[in-house]
Amino acid sequence: MVKKARIGILGASGYTGAELVRLGLRHPHFELAVLTADRKAGQAMADVFPQFAPFDLPKLVAIEGLDWRSLALDLVFCALPHGTTQLVLKELLDTAPATRVVDLSADFRLDDPAAYETWYGHPHQALSLQSEAVYGLVEIYRKEIKGARLVANPGCYTTTCELPLIPLLKRKAIEPDEIIIDAKSGMTGAGRSAKEAMLFSEVSEGFNAYGIARHRHMAELDQEFSKAAGQDVIATFTPHLVPMNRGILATIYVRLRKDRTARDLRSILAEAYDREPFVHVLPYGDMPQTRHVRGSNMAMIGVAEDRREGAAIIVSVLDNLVKGASGQAIQNANLMLGFPETAGLEQIALFP
């Protein structure tokens, strides 16, 4: 019998934490050893999420007072709010330096401390960890992730946009200064905390743009697009909130480089992701929908020609809680722990 990895989930009472539990319960190599919560500490996981009633899970506990060394965790998923995460992980890794961490917050995604301070409003409080963190977009940084101790799981919007655009920027197939991203996310992307703006009567029967020209994911997009292009790239990005539970759909408008066609873009993406288990490029002209990936770790990409000469339209979709968060986190963890990359992630989209 293969020894299972002891796993901790910090912030298990949130949506991404619960998704980590859902996927982790069926992971062949995981033992869910520690589940933490703040306001829900002392409760059973089934009291917070009744779908877990049939399963024997650890009781939710507070982070304060945990002895990281004696817990002997192989890997920790951190699903805490940004800002909070830095000091928690600093203490954890100072105490138990052999523990691997996949952080689902935004705290370690940006390479530049000054950029973090600009976008998040305070200095980074764990600079030594920030410098060692590896950006966890598996399809781009697989080799670096395998040897990492700390992986910064990408944001859900950014994963949706980076998967189609990074290969095209690397191949210089599109103009880097003419990228427009119109993205729409389901409600779970806003978290589980009670907020007046998230009440059913506030969001049903309509949708809205938000974070206009200042959404924090823009810093992540700037960083990764610029690396791919080898020059500064600033894309136009507008997020929208849609009254559905799960899913992100990004409609991306690009200008083609000279002598490139929309079919060329599709060919580049198909070649880039031909052997990837969780990215599927559709036949030219076909477009994905969020329901095609619901509950799965799959991202789907479609490419079509724009009616404007020399332009193309790309549509990219994923489930914001799976490939956009917890599924991608498990994909990272599998690499870090030496397990098959697809372990625990084979579920097909749920439809209808």
Summary keywords:
352 residues; alpha/beta; Rossmann fold; Dihydrodipicolinate Reductase, domain 2; 2 domains; seven-stranded parallel sheet; seven-stranded mixed sheet; globular
CATH homologous superfamily grouping of the largest domain? NAD(P)-binding Rossmann-like Domain
Count of discrete structural domains: 2
- How many H/I helical runs? 12
Assigned CATH class of the largest domain: Alpha Beta
- Please state roughly what percent of the residues sit in beta strands, choosing from under 5%, 5-15%, 15-25%, 25-35%, 35-45% or over 45%: 15-25%
The shape is globular
Q: Measured on Cα atoms, how large is the radius of gyration?
A: 20 Å
| CATH fold assignment of the largest domain | Rossmann fold
Mean pLDDT: 94
Structural class, judged by helices and strands? alpha/beta
Q: pLDDT under 50 segments (min length 5)?
A: none
Order of helices and strands: EHEHEHEHEHHEHEHEHEHEEHEEEH
Largest sheet: 7 strands, parallel
Helix content: 25-40%
Strands of the largest sheet, in order across it? 3-2-1-4-5-7-6
CATH second-level architecture of the largest domain: 3-Layer(aba) Sandwich
- Please provide the count of β strands: 14
Catalytic activity: N-acetyl-L-glutamate 5-semialdehyde + phosphate + NADP(+) = N-acetyl-L-glutamyl 5-phosphate + NADPH + H(+)
Organism: Blastochloris tepida
Subcellular location: Cytoplasm
Family: Belongs to the NAGSA dehydrogenase family. Type 1 subfamily.
